[in-house]
Amino acid sequence: MTGVKIDGLEVAKSIRLQVKDIVNDLKAKGITPCLATVLVGDNQASATYVRNKHKACEDVGILTKDHTPTAEITQAGLNKLIEELNQDETVHGILVQLPLPSHLNEFITTTQILPEKDVDGLTPPNVGLLSIGKAVLVACTPSGIIEMCKYYNIELEGKNVVIINRSNLVGKPLYHLLLQNNATVTTCHSKTKDLKKICLNSDIVITGVGNRAIFKLTPDMIKEGAVVIDVATTRHDGKLSGDADYSEIIEKTSFASPVPGGVGPMTVAMLLKNTVTAAAISKGIDIKS
Ligand SMILES: NC(=O)c1ccc[n+]([C@@H]2O[C@H](COP(=O)([O-])OP(=O)(O)OC[C@H]3O[C@@H](n4cnc5c(N)ncnc54)[C@H](OP(=O)(O)O)[C@@H]3O)[C@@H](O)[C@H]2O)c1
User: Fold this and answer.
1) Residue to mutate, 9, 231, 266, ligand 1, most ligand atoms under 8 Å from C-beta
2) What is the mean pLDDT of the chain?
3) How far is the CA of 165 from the centre of ligand 1 (A)?
4) Structural domains in the chain?
């Protein structure tokens, strides 16, 4: 069996078009959605991610405010900047690009962000709301994966889904979203025993390890006709790849997502969606998803 490519660029495009319409509606009501980004220090990869997010915002008409404190900023200084953005009524979403330099605490930092401006869905109130199925602002990568499944009519209800990742950014929020979609979810990690057996028993395998030296998802680990969604982004043999080799895995799957061009574009698209959602909520406007 050769599967269908889950084209993240195509799905992301459809989300961006929806977002653009919402931006136009909000502008007609006098609201210009605005995302403030905070990039600390001079991490080149992070700078590229932030640049791409700004460009994506620009393309759909979302304003951006760029804050680039040097790596010398103190925790108190960073907290103060976030507090200013919390108070700024023209800012609807705040994104602190991670990782932060090691003297800064990521939990303390993200916890400063007002939940209603938390477009990354990382603050404890939003994480708590997600766990009881009431979240509005949800982490972008997991919600992007759910959108990909919807776009390709990949049924989640009653399916055995394995997530190979338990991070706060990916695996844990994804677990809740899948559960809300009536999947039966198994979360695996570095201490999991019999990972191959769990994968072979799964209808959908979502993998996000990101280190080929210790893990590779190979065709013998998945059952014929399964769906594979590859979240990982890692440098392998000089090029960007995921946990799996797409050309190998696609031969055995019904659907598979490539790297690049899979989950990555969805993460950015969902950030745009969260930003317009936050802007609408700030003015008491209900936008249907
Ligand atoms: N495309 C996107 O938009 C996007 C967004 C977010 C992340 N990513 C990518 O996704 C990957 C993961 O990101 P992250 O932030 O979640 O990283 P992370 O916190 O390092 O998570 C990696 C996960 O893999 C697990 N793991 C490590 N070795 C394993 C093994 N041998 N078998 C099974 N599980 C194993 C870890 O288990 P433990 O918890 O036991 O350590 C952990 O849960 C990275 O490549 C990142 O670049 C991509």
Assistant:
1) 231
2) 97
3) 5
4) 30-115 (3.40.50.10860), 140-265 (3.40.50.720)
